[in-house]
Amino acid sequence: MVEQAIRIRLAHGDVLTGDLAVPESAHGVIVFAHGSGSSRHSPRNRMVAEALRERGLATFLMDLLTSDEEEVDLRTGQLRFDVELLADRLNAAMSWLAERPATAGLPVGYFGASTGAAAALIAAARRPAGVAAVVSRGGRPDLAGPHLPDVQAPTLLIVGGHDRDVLDLNRAAHDRLRVARRLEIVPAAGHLFAEPGALELVAGLAGDWFTRHLPLAVAADGRRQA
Predict the structure, then answer these.
(1) pLDDT tens-digit series, residues 201-220
(2) SS3 35
(3) 47 Cα distance to chain centroid
(4) Which band of pLDDT confidence, cut at 50, 70 and 90, is reported for residue 223?
(5) How far apart are CA 90 and CA 63, in angstroms?
(6) pTM exceeds 0.85
């Protein structure tokens, strides 16, 4: 497996950092969208990423804010809710992955947590031909608002059964989606899925969804790309 620390330079010079891991013969790449003050070092998302790599999916865990923006956000808490900005960053990452030899041609999925889920859905709505599937873990898809009916990527919403307010928001967002979608409730789990076995269940549901909805990447000569 190839593992790399990545720096993506945006058009205006800002730099985003991330960790890319590509298993041998990967058949897709999942970009993680963190939210609510988290980062690419989130132990919960890293656990899910490891489970996805065991299924042959590459993973890209990235920070959606620059280092300067993170300092501002720590003081104000505002940028983590700028889901339009975060969506732009996700699609910048997808464009970057499309140009890398290890990931070019691989179908892309988005895994979003908290406010990152809204960013993932907005990004998918903006690039309907580029995103094959979306999974939300304890997400705020309601923040995607008017973009929800435009999402064309099959979407899985995973919510803890004890996370009642977020569950209500996910039910409402589920009803606004016009694509193949599912709401999965993890019994007795809270917002962070810290209960024994809860996060493992999340990883299994996400892996099943991505495996089902990410098509195999095929090279020009008809062989599956590695």
Answers:
(1) 999 999 999 999 998 543 33
(2) coil
(3) 14
(4) very low
(5) 10
(6) yes
